[in-house]
Specification:
The protein is an all-alpha fold and about 240 residues long. The chain has helices at about 1-20, 30-50, 65-85, 110-120, 130-145, 150-155, 165-185, 200-215, 215-230, and strands spanning about 160, 230-235.
Length: about 240
């Protein structure tokens, strides 16, 4: 779980290098950044107050906290850059996920809202604290779908070309999720509700698995781009309709 967090933090670090070095916010979804900020804030509010969801090894004493905090800092910095100094280069015409009957830029509510409802009703109780348990669960479930606006934005780009550092950023997030999925495959049974139900554990596994499925196309084209040392070019339409 710690290695997954490190990969995630590294990914957002790459995004900051890309954004601040090029002074452009092209190809970056603000909606995904907003969702990830919520993810890290909720997870930190849980793990700072309680220890139920921390790694059992020594990394759970302090390292995991630092990793999650730095990931939040990197994410917030990238979001600020896209909404502030480099706003004119932000491609809002492509970042249109969920913009139906909501003000422009608020499409992420269609992801954040339903996931919160699920977390309120289906969550483990390792901390024996309702708010803390829901916050951690919400972060896990929300992270599984937080990349959807970014993948949707890739699909809407006419050229299909993804900037190299942006591709590395998304790949690092996906790799981190893969590592966490492998961890929870062996540990999901610990995510039981106060009534003893294992549904939270099954749902946690399912949500992470679905994220990996949604990223299959991206992983394949990313692998081909790295292997052939060519730009990453995604098809305009895929079988999954996401990338």
């Amino acid at each position: 779980m710690t290695y997954g967090g490190m990969s995630r933090m590294f990914g957002f670090g790459i995004l900051n290098v890309k954004t601040f070095k090029s002074k452009r916010a092209t190809g970056v979804s603000i909606k995904s950044l907003q969702l990830y900020c919520i993810v890290f804030v909720c997870r930190l509010t849980s793990i700072i107050r309680h220890e139920g969801y921390l790694p059992y090894d020594k990394s759970g004493d302090w390292l995991y906290h630092i990793i999650e905090f730095m990931a939040l800092v990197f994410t917030a910095a990238a979001l600020w850059a896209c909404m502030g100094p480099f706003k004119q280069t932000y491609q809002s015409d492509f970042d249109k996920f969920g913009e139906l009957n909501v003000p422009p830029g608020y499409g992420a509510v269609y992801i954040a809202g339903p996931v919160l409802v699920i977390a309120l009703f289906v969550h483990p109780s390792l901390n024996n604290d309702f708010l803390s348990d829901v916050a951690w669960t919400y972060a896990m479930y929300l992270e599984s779908v937080a990349l959807i606006p970014q993948l949707y934005m890739f699909q809407k780009q006419a050229s299909g070309v993804v900037e190299l550092l942006t591709a590395h950023f998304v790949a690092a997030l996906g790799f981190g999720r893969l590592l966490e999925f492998l961890f929870w495959v062996y540990s999901y049974h610990e995510l039981a509700s106060s009534a003893g139900s294992k549904l939270p554990g099954y749902l946690a596994l399912f949500s992470q698995f679905m994220q990996l499925v949604l990223m299959l196309d991206f992983f394949w084209y990313y692998y081909l781009a790295v292997k052939n040392a060519t730009p990453l070019v995604l098809p305009s339409h895929s079988g999954m309709g996401i990338v």
